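Morning F.,

Quick status update on the modeling queue. The single chain you submitted on Monday has been processed. Sequence for confirmation:
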Amino acid sequence: MIEAFVLVVVKPGYEDEVHTALAGHENIKEIYRVYGEYDLILRVEVGSIEELDSFHDGVLRKVRHIEMTETLIASSYRG
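Structure tokens below.
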């Protein structure tokens, strides 16, 4: 299982519309509205890098008003 955090920049004024478009998608486990450079953070779980590619291309790129994303793949910290 791969866990990723997707930082999303939304066209101003369309945050609720983008949230609604993404809410309930099977790979999105949590959505947070945040302040700062990004507007939303998604916690995403997929089975493989190929599924992450499909999610990115097949879901995120099709949502209107998303201007930019940055995907961070989580890794366990061993200290």
